[in-house]
């Protein structure tokens, strides 16, 4: 079999839309040394394909980071498979809060230098000296202390639609931007209790070690992230201190945690918390759009992009070829990816 997908994405998207097979969306990660990364990647692709897994998985010398869906009747087979490999044995699985089985449409497993792009030199500090892992109940209790500092280790577009009450939510677009920014912002509070959280926990593994390296004394992280927090809150009837939606990196783009809408449509300003990618393939800007603007703007961020998608497909392709030949491609992209047009 081929070790990569060879089918057109539109075909695959239509296939998963029409497929009624019950599927379970899962995420997991593990920092573990993988000696032959390419061989591991190829074997995972073969074995996961046989299990019917669809998703996005990164493997690196430092470990694995996976978000995917599996046919529900193969879930136990997946667990058994992981347990046969010492590197992945007893893997903690985070099950999606909201799941229609349409989260992914293809399997992509990629070799990376790191499983999370953090921009850090791992040799400059002890990456294994991480913060204390807290359960949902412990995290809630720690938040009750008014002296505690809660930090959202996600990007601004994630925290915009949902976050923990009273959390610091940095205005950044990448994890690598956030780490030095937050550490500098809190440099005078190194004796305070620090609570870190992210989607599934992986970013906090690096972040907590980075905080401790910079002299913070009481560093804690939400074990399993927002995904597992929501599960524990439901199972244990705990108070839910997270408001809004949890952004997820698949076709769902979000899952409801509290039912409150805390963000606004970027075009009309009405209450909305649904992200969309601009329908213009050469733009693909991620922004929040309400249903009314979605219909009016045809899933686009601006009239410029509406005009492009209304061109015949051959004209769109010609435009892309012309652009690809331009010397200043970066300048073009800055023009083609405009800020969201206010209506």
Instruction: Indicate the CATH class of the largest domain.
Output: Alpha Beta
Instruction: Name the CATH superfamily assignment of the largest domain.
Output: Rhodanese-like domain
Helix/strand order, N-terminal first: HEHEEHEEEHEHEHEHEHEEEEHHHH
Count of the domains: 3
Mind describing the biggest β-sheet? 5 strands, mixed
Q: Could you tell me how far the N terminus lies from the C terminus, measured between alpha carbons in angstroms?
A: 50 Å
Show unreliable segments.
Answer: 327-338
Total strand segments: 14
- Average of per-residue pLDDT values: 91
Broad structural category:
alpha/beta
Which percent bin holds the helix content?
A: 25-40%
Largest beta sheet: what is the strand line-up?
4-1-3-2-5
Helical stretch count? 12
CATH architecture of the largest domain: 3-Layer(aba) Sandwich
| CATH-defined topology of the largest domain | Oxidized Rhodanese, domain 1
Q: In angstroms, what is the radius of gyration?
A: 21 Å
Oligomeric grouping of the chains: single chain
Q: Write down the overall geometry.
A: globular
Portion in strands: 15-25%
């Amino acid at each position: 079999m081929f070790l990569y997908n060879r089918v057109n994405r539109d075909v695959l998207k239509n296939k998963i839309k029409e497929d009624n097979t019950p599927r379970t969306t899962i995420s997991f990660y593990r920092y573990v040394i993988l000696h032959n990364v390419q061989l591991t990647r190829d074997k995972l692709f073969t074995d996961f394909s046989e299990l019917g897994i669809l998703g996005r998985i990164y493997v690196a010398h430092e470990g694995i980071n996976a978000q995917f869906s599996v046919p529900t009747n193969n879930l136990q087979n997946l667990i058994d498979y992981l347990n046969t490999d010492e590197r992945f044995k007893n893997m903690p699985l985070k099950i999606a809060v909201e799941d229609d089985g349409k989260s992914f449409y293809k399997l992509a497993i990629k070799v990376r230098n790191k499983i999370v792009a953090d921009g850090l030199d791992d040799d400059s500090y002890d990456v294994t000296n991480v913060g204390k892992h807290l359960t949902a109940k412990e995290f809630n209790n720690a938040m009750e202390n008014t002296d505690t500092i809660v930090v959202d280790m996600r990007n601004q577009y994630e925290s915009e639609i949902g976050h923990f009450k009273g959390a610091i939510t940095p205005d950044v677009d990448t994890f690598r931007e956030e780490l030095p920014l937050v550490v500098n912002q809190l440099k005078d509070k190194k004796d305070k209790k620090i609570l870190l959280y992210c989607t599934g926990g992986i970013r906090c593994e690096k972040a907590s070690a980075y905080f401790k390296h910079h002299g913070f004394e009481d560093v804690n992280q939400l074990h399993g992230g927002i995904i597992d927090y929501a599960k524990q809150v439901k199972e244990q009837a705990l108070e839910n201190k997270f408001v809004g939606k949890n952004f997820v990196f698949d076709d769902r783009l979000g899952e409801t945690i509290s039912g409150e809408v805390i963000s606004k449509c970027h075009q009309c300003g009405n209450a909305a918390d649904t992200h969309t990618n601009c329908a213009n393939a050469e733009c693909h800007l991620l922004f929040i759009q309400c249903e009314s603007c979605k219909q009016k703007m045809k899933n686009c961020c601006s009239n410029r992009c509406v005009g492009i998608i209304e061109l015949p497909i051959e004209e769109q392709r010609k435009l892309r070829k012309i652009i690809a030949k331009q010397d200043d491609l970066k300048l073009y992209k800055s023009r083609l990816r405009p800020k969201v047009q206010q209506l």
